[in-house]
């Protein structure tokens, strides 16, 4: 059986990628393969070329013939020079630089910001109309809370609810005085 090492095309129209495969020479281009020994993505920058060197050396050693395209890829990875015993077995493969992770980008942005916001908060403050009735209710509820010592438990719970409503109004008044 005549064995070839060639490319099996995959991907979409105008976005090809290939697998480097060992196949019987009588099979069609994308037909059944004996073994996949690598992949090639020509559209990436720089092109991604991954070949399992050990398996490529084995198949070349037992007589598999590479196609012209695969031979060029093997020269880039250095496998062809290693097989032929030529100098330059390290190849001329360019590696893509490592991508920065999202965590690294975030940490870098945090250092640039100095861990403190440079502007005020963006949330809108409550309108003055809403603050005035809340401020008017707060003094009226305070005497009712003081009189709550001799009340029944139901009345005490009702006055407790009124105190709960007064606390946000007091907080809003405190914020207003700070600003």
Automatic annotation (TrEMBL):
Gene Ontology BP, a term: translation
Highest taxon, organism lineage: Bacteria
Signal sequence residues: none
Keyword set, alphabetical order: Ribonucleoprotein, Ribosomal protein
Ranges of biased composition (kind: Low complexity): 136-172
Region spans: Disordered: 110-179
Record InterPro entries: Ribosomal_bS16 (IPR000307), Ribosomal_bS16_CS (IPR020592), Ribosomal_bS16_dom_sf (IPR023803)
GO cellular component terms, A-Z: cytoplasm; small ribosomal subunit
Family annotation (Pfam families): Ribosomal_S16
UniProt GO molecular function: structural constituent of ribosome
NCBIfam families: PRK14520.1, S16
HAMAP family found in the cross-reference section: Ribosomal_bS16 (MF_00385)
Recorded family membership: Belongs to the bacterial ribosomal protein bS16 family.
Protein name listed in UniProt: Small ribosomal subunit protein bS16
Organism this protein belongs to: Nocardioides iriomotensis
Recorded name of the encoding gene: rpsP
